[in-house]
Amino acid sequence: MSQERPYIDKSTDELEIIINSNWNNLNILKVISFELEFRSRRKAQALFTRVSVHLKELEKQKEISVDYTVKNIADNSLINIIKYPEGILGYFGYKVGFSGVSENQRRQILKQIFMETLPSINSPEYMNDWGEPETEKRFKKMLDSIATFIRNTQRRKDWGNYKQAIKDWENDLHYLRNTYTFTKSNEYYQLYLQEKAKITELITKAEIDAKKNEEAAYLLSKAHQNIQTYEIEINQLKESVAHEQQNYQQTLSLYNEEKAKATELLVKYEEVSSERDNYVILYNEAKSELKFERRSKASIKGWETRRKAENERLKKEISDMVVLLRESLTSKDEAINNLYIVAERMDRIQSLVDLVDEETTSNPVGMVQKFKRIWLAIKEILSE
Is the same domain home to 72 and 211? Predict the structure, then answer.
């Protein structure tokens, strides 16, 4: 079953207020820590880190109980423990802190210990220190035991984790002092209050130092988090650079391909241009041969006039074709189509020239008529 999220509707600022108000409440901090795991903003992640560190400290904490504190009492009688190493208070179930019993139960246990005959759970020397029921000796032993618990705990480096236990012990001391009255015990209680004032001053200083350490730990955690964020951004930039490099390589490859195609088209253009020059040479040769043919002056002169005009037009058309071919190099498909058109026209011109070569005649009129047919065909080609 998935864990519930009772704080899902709370903002990060509201969660921070709840955390500060329940700083030592292990259960509430665990629930809030679980909620912060679902939030990705920087402030929520920083708060999650802070709570996680504190949770680890709280989980390591084991509330001071009678079982632990009695073992630290400087009492030689504890060396000869027989059955119950926790002592009288632990035997009767006296326990403080978050994992301890309620205040009312502790008062009942203290009353029972003070009023009743104690069972012999340890050595006779140890039991003798507790005295008889409702005596000052027993009352003093009870006060001394609880005060010793407080002193031993406050001397620990991690005493801040046991504030609730210390508070419970102090409340129980006040309860015993206000419930039962003995003269010597009053003197002892006054000494205890003096020592408590000194310890409180030391605790205040220690709390200030602890707060500074906590702030330093929080800043350190925040710095680590910023470093992680920067590392993520750097990795993203690296991926972006790699992607751009890949795009550049692809673009360069396409450019090289287009460049190769353009070179190929240029070669084809040069071949076509060479063929065009050959056709012009053939045309000039045919024109030279026609000069020596015998024909009537009037018809020949008129034919030559028309031929010159047609020659000029043919030259212009050929020049236009050259320009067209050069312009078509910018487009692959257009260039190829133009080349096909020019080749087709050249083939037709070549066919006409071949036809002239095949139908040789010495009659000038016949030659004129043949050239007339040739020029009509050329006109048709040029009109296309």
Answer: yes
